UniProtKB/TrEMBL annotation, chain A:
Name of the protein this chain belongs to: VOC family protein
Pfam families: Glyoxalase
Organism: Streptomyces paludis
PANTHER family cross-referenced by the UniProt entry: GLYOXALASE/BLEOMYCIN RESISTANCE PROTEIN/DIOXYGENASE, GLYOXALASE_BLEOMYCIN RESISTANCE PROTEIN_DIOXYGENASE
Ranges of residues in domain VOC: 2-128
Domain of life, source organism: Bacteria
UniProtKB/TrEMBL annotation, chain B:
Domain HTH arsR-type: from-to ranges: 1-95
Cross-referenced InterPro entries: ArsR-like_HTH, HTH_ArsR_DNA-bd_dom, HTH_MetalResp_TranReg, WH-like_DNA-bd_sf, WH_DNA-bd_sf
Protein name: ArsR family transcriptional regulator
Keyword Transcription regulation recorded: yes
Keywords on record: DNA-binding, Transcription, Transcription regulation
SMART domains noted in UniProt: HTH_ARSR (SM00418)
């Protein structure tokens, strides 16, 4: 078994696609209309186009808002992405206006930071020990 | 207030949380928990940390502020002054008269 796809709920799929591609640097993989305004919309890392897909899933279900609001209030991220250098990425994204709720934090061999994806979620970035 | 202060300080985990809050002001619950695990403070759940923070807030040692959807915690050591005022420490900065 391996992880092929994981998802984050997003308030607005078009806005989420823009943020995840133009700001974060992912590339669109699948974009299939599902009826109404909903799309099967996934992005992948440009470094691994055949790798794990991230589904940008509509957040319309009534359970989603209270669930995410409670997590965001406490600063709890819903997904973690790996980057080569958290501090460099923190500088780059801050320069693009991304709001961080946790600045780079060294915890032993791992450095992490947490930002708001503007679609309702907090996302953690981390450098993994070599 | 004084009783709340001493009760808050009596717990070693809460003292560690205060240590963690001196490292950076404006931390989310998640960041506080991350820093506690980095300090190898084992087996403390987020819910427990949240409850400890409530005790510290009640004693005036921690202040919380909301910014939009986020909630941040700041350290306020001002209440500790009550201790020094109640039991003032002798002034040891000047020359000692106790030299033989």
């Amino acid at each position: 078994m391996k992880i092929h796809l994981t998802s984050v709920f997003v308030n607005d799929q078009a806005k989420a696609l823009a943020f995840y591609t133009e700001i974060l640097g992912f590339v669109k993989k699948h974009d299939v209309p599902l009826g109404g305004e909903d799309r099967w919309l996934t992005v992948v890392s440009p470094d691994a186009p055949g790798g794990t897909e991230l589904l940008l899933e509509p957040a319309g279900h009534p359970a989603v808002k209270p669930y995410r609001d409670a997590l965001v209030q406490d600063g709890i991220p819903l997904a973690q992405f790996t980057v080569d250098d958290v501090k460099a990425e923190y500088e780059r994204l801050s320069g693009l206006g991304v709001r961080f709720t946790q600045e780079p934090l060294e915890a032993g061999p791992v450095t992490t930071a947490v930002f708001d994806d503007t679609c309702g979620n907090l996302i953690q970035i981390a450098t993994q020990p070599q | 207030m004084a009783d709340d202060l001493f009760k808050a300080l009596a717990d070693p985990t809460r003292r560690t949380i205060l240590d963690v809050l001196t490292e950076r002001s404006g931390q989310t619950l998640f960041e506080i928990c991350s820093r506690l695990s980095a300090k190898r403070q084992p087996g403390i759940s987020r819910q427990a940390v949240s409850q400890h923070l409530a005790v510290l807030e009640n004693a005036g040692l921690v202040e919380t502020r909301r910014e939009g959807r986020y909630k941040f915690h700041d350290l306020d050591t001002a209440p500790l002054r009550q201790i020094a005022e109640r039991w003032p420490a002798p002034d040891t900065s000047g020359p000692e008269e106790s030299t033989p």
